[in-house]
Fold:
Amino acid sequence: MNIYQELKARGFIYQETDSAIIEKKLATEKVVFYCGFDPTGSSLHVGHLLPVMAMRMLQKAGHVPTVLVGGATGAIGDPSGRSTARNMLTMDTVAENVEALKAQLARFITLENGEAFFVNNFDWLGQIKLLDFLRDIGSRFSVNRMLAQKSVESRMENGLSFLEFSYSLLQGYDFYYLNKEYNCTLEIGGQDQWGNMVAGTELIRRMYEEERQADCLTIPLLMNPATGQKFGKSVGGTSVWLDTERTSTFDYYQFWRNSDDAMVKELLLKFAIELPLDECIAIAEQPNINRAKEILAYEATKLAHGKKAADDAFLAAGSKFGFADPGNLVKTSSSIAVLSAKDAVDALPETVISSEDINNGLTIPKLLVLSGICKSTSDARRLVQGNAVSIDDVKITDVNHSLSTGDFVNNCITLRAGKKNFRKVVLK
Structure:
């Protein structure tokens, strides 16, 4: 099975300009390809990861990824899939976000030793003069075709600014520039990017009068059948981020561990990409669905945060909730197989407090907010009143209960809210 066939078998291919040409090039050439990410925020979330997984697979197969973070396009905002315009960011904020995303993407894509390119489209789009761009590039785009794009058509009723309307031209120019400067001949991205991506292939052909072949393929959006939402939201509807300041490694692991049963096979195929295809299928189809979820969560966490973090998250979760396959009966080549209950350590997300905090009357609702479990003390009070909070397995029912130094054993307690929210609270 070649890399194109594996991408297809794992469900990564939705639309493509020419399947035969793309498969042949990936089988016979070292293809330079690109995928773009707009820095509209300082962190990616799991909903962004499908094209990243495809990029990693292609790189491991010997192809050369060009990781584009849009310092220019991010200042505009892609209208695709949106009913309203994005909030405008300052150029300083965009530049900060570019650096943050570069660091996150480097966890998945090897950028050193010429194995990949990392580019910022502000470096070329920021230098173009408006009249030159309109004459040389704008003249080659059909407004009628642009109006027919779903990203534009869906916004006509609510209004679409010329700023957003121009986004397709800029993304098309990105592909042309990368084709010219890096010999990039393939673009990949989400299915909602099809119109913008095809604009690039058409621009390349027009600029070179049909002499160059450039292609693109899109990856299908991943939907949660239980909620009907795009994949990437936690049970509470909040995004699951790669930034550990927003989503702890433990919570990241738990997001995957709590996946809907109906999605486990698809998620293993798309996110446990370090495991062979046949193994992913076998793990998904064996009867111990919870072990399949553990392997999925472990592999997804290892890719995003590293093996040590994945080990700790698996062992911490297993020590609190139990291990799905303590005897390692489900065959897997994942390094999770060498871990067992006897290795379990207390690797829960940690909150540090001081004696001064306790002396000032640190109540349980305040601690719930301080630890990040709750966003407000009113939310925390409701949890306490609902008998959902405990310290070291002792229920807390009094919303005015304050911590004392006597609550701590070896300067540590375990705070629990509901069935799955745990924090280690350390007194220093």
Remarks:
- The two ends are 56 Å apart (CA to CA).
- Residues 24 and 238 are 41 Å apart (CA to CA).
